[in-house]
Amino acid sequence: MSETDRDLVAALRAELAAVDPSRPCDRLAEIAGLGTTVTSREASVSRLAVRLGGRAPADRPPGARRVFVLPDTQFDWSRAAEHCRMAWLRGRFLARGSLSLAVGRAHLEFVVTIEEAPVLAARLAAVGLPASWRVRRGHGVVTWKSTESIASFLGRIGASASLLELEARSVARTMRGDLNRVIDALEADGRLGEQPRIVRAVAGARRETPEASLSEIAVRLDIHRSAVQRALDRVERLALHDDEGIGRRVRNRPSGGGQGAGRPGADARASGMMRT
């Protein structure tokens, strides 16, 4: 996972940990979700534990991870209101959940006991968020790999600003994937090979590193960022105007009623594109 992705995950967890429920029932539900013992390296989660009444053990060794003991709170999922269920799930995610954005894909999982895994999966399904579960190395793992499901869950338990950033990145990745498919199609029909060297180089760099930003591609190719943008814009135009022959080299054609007659501007446009 890249540094920017790690920063986004940290910001999202900090945002969730900062949620301060106004209802006493929601506070109790979140305490139940966190569990009686909270162990975390995250300052935001530690602050949450203290805010909810957690106390650090007096015998904690110096330098050990932060451990807080919370009141043993009972929670009846079957009778709980929707807002209490979301508070409980927020606590469970902060205590047992993790989010990964590696390789351009979102992956959220809860690592719990084997006994809890099917119960948690059933509770998520009951609120319209079905998830899969399995046993891994002696633990139960409840998982989502769908960005849509992950975004829905995070939004319902209180994420907002960080979630918008996550969704924006997902859209950007989808667009880059679409562009890579366009590049493949242009290479297959021969038009990419007919483009100027810089366009071919940018297309190749984009396909090899789909997660790279325009600036990163520019550094890699030792060109200006604006040149990368122009090259990718040209690739998009080639795909959008396939029916007009844009991007194909102009060849001498006999005058008269041959192919292309009646479209006097087509070759001029193609020639102009090749000179830009």
Blueprint of the fold:
Layout: H1 3-17, H2 24-34, E1 37-40, H3 43-51, E2 66-69, H4 82-96, E3 97-100, E4 107-112, H5 116-126, E5 132-136, E6 139-144, H6 147-156, H7 161-188, H8 197-208, H9 214-221, H10 225-240, H11 264-275
Antiparallel strand pairs: 1-2, 3-4, 4-6, 5-6
Helix pairs in contact: 1-3, 1-7, 2-4, 6-7, 7-10, 8-9, 8-10, 9-10
Q: In words, what does this structure look like?
A:
With 276 residues, the chain is of the alpha+beta class. It folds into two domains: 157 residues, Endonuclease I-creI (Roll), CATH 3.10.28.10; 90 residues, no CATH class. Helix content is 53%, strand content 11%. The protein contains eleven helices and six strands. The radius of gyration is 27 Å and the shape is elongated. It starts with a helix and ends with a helix.
What count of structural domains?
A: 2
For the largest sheet, list the strands in their spatial order: 3-4-6-5
Please write the string of helix (H) and strand (E) elements.
HHEHEHEEHEEHHHHHH
Unreliable residue stretches: 243-276
Please identify the structural class as seen in this structure: alpha+beta
Per DSSP, what share of the residues sits in E-state strands of 2 or more residues?
Answer: 5-15%
Discrete helix count: 11
Radius of gyration: 27 Å
How many beta strands in the DSSP annotation? 6
